[in-house]
Design goal:
single chain; 489 residues; alpha+beta; Cytochrome Bc1 Complex, Chain A, domain 1; 6-stranded mixed sheet; 5-stranded mixed sheet; 19 helices; 11 strands; 17% strand; globular
């Protein structure tokens, strides 16, 4: 009863945003250069949250440059010719010299020259970097936002997208439009080589020295042979070490283009002013022809099921995954329902069985789309056993629950509860400006139409027990299965 009341209250709070009124609150602006802007007017405090989402992730990275999309996210906070430096003409000459040395160093490393032979070049680069540091105004880009009441200033890179976001008072709309368009138009890749070291250390901390990171990376590389989803977003060490300014700029010129960008602004502001500012500032971005990549779909090839073990000093854990088709396949929403049914909340089937009832696992999770949505991916399970020897038993319990989905239709009442739960989660994510801006921008970027959010909800409510049973029988089969264990040495 409490859950029903809670859901009803959430629905009432979010109803004006989520129901058909959303059509009246969104103004879609298409610029001549191909950029799309979604302006969402909401009542409340005079503040807004804004997203700039670029359709570029690790799947666009060329061979030998893995992690470049994530690295460029770091670079986008370094400023412009007017922001972040005391003397740009002097800096420009210094940067040109630094990049010449850095490019030479990377080229000779790729040829296999020893670090001893390269010591003079390394030393020269360090001297230039020290001289460059004297010209910098550290973190000025972010500080400008913060001095003007900005918060949540950040960015993320996934396999599919790169996003920049911030929240500001409504009277700072022009400041936001100026800063965001400037860093897209005139980025200066400062501290390029220093930031390479930062990313390399981030990789060591989050993946090389972290059990979950090592397991996740091993799982992706085992699951995907030719798909770029087999590479981690952060990149591999040799590629990170040898990024060059020329490669980074070529990547930016090819993919940071208006037709791949969606700008989303949600909050209490004036529509006419916001549209005028978007056109004035983002309209300056030059129109460029997109060169979309073509990827082959995953196909069963007789080399599954796959199983692998890696060792480590940490407690055991594992992933099981099943290859599944990418959006907009008609089964996409069914996977969302199965994820919620099996793993979402303490009453979900796997949590109830493995954590609450049998006490075999301390944690069990499901991921309907791992690691991304633009290409064929996997439906994955992750589990941490309470006892090291229980991993095979937990694996069998998970497979047993999947067999149950194949052989017994889901109870209609349980399925309706799952649909309501997905409804509540979706509505809750739209309650705040930042969540609303993110969600609508995501659907616009992925599907080409933010209104897909309506079709998603309709489709979820159309799913039947027979749909769940059919999808389980089709995809949760040995010929699509990948399992990777982390075993304690």
């Amino acid at each position: 009863m409490f859950r029903t009341i809670l859901f009803f209250l959430i629905f009432l709070i979010a109803l004006p945003v989520y129901a058909n009124d959303l059509e009246k609150q969104v103004r879609e602006v298409k610029l001549d250069n191909g950029l799309t802007a979604l302006l969402i007017k909401r009542e409340g405090a005079p503040i807004f949250s804004a997203y700039v989402r670029v359709k570029v992730g690790n799947i666009e990275e060329p061979e030998g440059s893995s992690g470049l999309a994530h690295f460029f996210e770091h670079m986008a906070f370094k400023g412009t010719p007017e922001i972040g430096v005391r003397d740009y003409p002097r800096e420009e000459k210094l940067l040109k010299e630094m990049h010449a040395v850095g490019g030479d160093l990377a080229a000779r490393r790729r040829k296999g020259e020893s670090e001893e032979a390269l010591k003079s070049l390394v030393d020269k680069l360090h001297v230039l970097e020290e001289e460059h540091q004297k010209l910098l105004v550290q973190n000025e880009f972010v500080q400008i936002y913060q001095r003007n009441g900005g918060n949540d200033v950040n960015a993320t890179t996934s396999n599919d997208f790169t996003s920049y976001y911030v929240s500001l008072p409504a009277n700072k709309m022009e400041l936001w439009a100026h800063l965001e368009s400037e860093r897209l138009l005139h980025p200066v890749l400062r501290e390029f080589y220093k930031e390479r070291d930062v990313v390399a250390e981030e990789r060591r901390m989050r993946y090389d020295n972290d059990p979950d990171g090592r397991l996740y990376e091993a799982f992706l590389s085992t699951a995907f042979d030719t798909s770029p989803y087999g590479r981690n977003v952060i990149g591999i060490p040799d590629d990170i070490r040898n990024y060059t300014f020329a490669a980074a700029m070529a990547f930016r010129e090819k993919y940071y283009i208006p037709s791949r960008m969606v700008v989303t602004v949600a909050g209490n502001f004036d529509f006419r002013e916001a549209e005028s500012l978007v056109r004035k500032y983002f309209g300056r971005l030059p129109k460029k022809e997109d060169q979309p990549l073509v990827f082959s779909p995953w196909k069963p090839d007789g080399r599954y099921p796959r199983e692998k073990s890696i060792g480590g000093k940490n407690e055991p854990r594992f992933y099981i995954g099943f290859h599944r088709p990418a959006f907009p396949h008609p089964d996409d929403e069914v996977f969302d329902v199965i994820e919620t049914l099996l793993c979402e909340g303490r009453t979900s089937r796997l949590f109830s069985l493995l954590v609450s009832e049998k006490k075999l696992a301390s944690r069990v999770d499901c991921y309907a789309t791992l690691p991304g949505a633009r290409l064929d991916s996997v439906f994955a399970f992750y589990a941490v056993p309470l006892k090291p020897g229980d991993m095979p038993l937990i694996q069998q319990e998970i497979l047993g629950r999947l067999d149950l989905l194949k052989n017994e239709p889901v109870n209609a009442g349980e399925l309706e509860k799952i649909k309501n739960q997905i409804d509540a989660d979706l509505i809750w994510s739209l309650k705040e400006n930042m969540g609303l801006a993110s969600m609508l921008g995501y659907f616009q970027s992925l599907t080409g139409d933010w209104r897909y959010i309506y079709r998603l909800r309709t489709r979820i409510h159309e799913i039947t027990p027979a749909d769940v049973q059919r999808v389980a029988k089709t995809y949760f089969v040995p010929g699509r299965r990948v399992t990777v264990f982390l075993e304690k040495e």
